[in-house]
Design goal:
By secondary structure, this protein is mainly α. The chain has two domains: about 80 residues, no CATH class; about 200 residues, no CATH class. It has eleven helices and five strands; from the N terminus they run H-H-H-H-H-H-H-H-E-E-E-E-E-H-H-H. The chain has a three-stranded antiparallel beta sheet with strand order 1-4-5. A two-stranded antiparallel ribbon has the order 2-3. A hairpin with a 6-residue loop joins strand 2 and strand 3. Helix 1 packs antiparallel against helix 2 and helix 7 crosses helix 8. The protein starts with a helix and ends with a helix. The N terminus is likely disordered.
Length: about 290
């Protein structure tokens, strides 16, 4: 998101409407883009909350025409995002745009990449810290704020983005969408093992959004088969991609592994065994067997 000042003003308005406090949005309204990058890079927080990130995310929500309730959700999860130093999808877009603006200037590209690498590294460390606490102590509150709450908010944003930017998304092969093709028995309401549906998955190669459509072309939003935001896309950075956006090893670590353990959402009806077994459906999808 490049018009940071404008979105900061929107953030201020939202702060007033929802809490009577303009402080968060006001910070976003007066900083320049350069100052914003310094704030992100330094992990700065303002007036008790991650104000810059909230202003950016709320601005996006407002622009998408979301209601007050949805804006409040984005506002809250954006605070969590910056507290964990997570790059929002718009920062991924900014990274690519700034690298393009460098042209053939390798020193410029290195400087841009390094600034975002610092943010990403801090994010990865905090993620691993919270995930380790979850595994060793059973206290998964903070880890699940990332996996459930933050990821869901960004998934919802991606679904809205898809409606007006479908041309930016890539259709994936069937074998890459097996985790979004569980089938439910209409009588028992239980997930049927060993069957695949006919949903298709699209991915935004830059922002990390995943969108899953049913056979009628409707976006799926139920926790069983919905698309889930990728902190790292599964592409191969060694063939011209950017490792901060796509990396199969990072994708497995930050996106796939927590899915196997926790599912898409709190009320995902699949069991951990069903999710683990679903990967063996990929060869059938390649052969066209449903």
């Amino acid at each position: 998101m490049t018009h940071i000042v404008a979105h900061g003003i929107i953030g201020c308005g939202t702060g007033l409407a929802l809490s009577g406090n303009c402080g968060a949005g006001a910070f976003g309204a007066v900083v320049s883009e350069g100052t914003a990058e310094l704030a992100f890079g330094a992990g700065m927080s303002q007036t008790g909350s991650a104000t810059l990130g909230q202003s950016l995310a709320v601005g996006a929500a407002f622009g998408l025409g979301m209601g007050a309730g949805a804006i409040q959700t984005v506002n809250t999860t954006a605070a969590q995002a910056i507290n964990y130093n997570y790059l929002l999808p718009d920062e991924k877009g900014d990274l690519i745009n700034k690298l393009k603006a460098c042209g053939d200037n390798d020193a410029c590209k290195d400087k841009v990449q390094e600034s975002y690498q610092k943010i990403s590294d801090a994010r990865d460390v905090e993620y691993d810290k919270q995930y380790k606490i979850c595994q060793e102590t059973g206290n998964c509150t903070e880890s699940l704020k990332i996996h459930y709450d933050l990821r869901l908010a960004l998934t919802q944003k991606g679904n809205e983005y898809f409606l007006t930017h479908r041309n930016e998304f890539e259709l994936l092969d069937d074998y890459q969408s097996v985790f979004h093709n569980f089938v439910v028995d209409p009588v028992t309401g239980k997930v049927i093992d060993g069957q695949l549906g006919n949903n298709v998955k699209y991915i935004d190669p830059i922002h990390g959004y995943e969108v899953v459509l049913d056979t009628k072309g409707h976006i799926i939003t139920d926790p069983l088969n919905e698309g889930t935001y990728n902190f790292y896309n599964p592409g191969l950075p060694w063939f011209g991609g950017n490792s901060l956006i796509e990396n199969p090893l990072s994708h497995n670590h930050f996106d796939v592994t927590p899915y196997y353990q926790f599912g898409n959402a709190v009320n995902d009806p699949t069991t951990q065994n069903q999710r683990n077994d679903q990967k063996w459906m990929a060869p059938l999808a390649i052969m066209g067997i449903k």
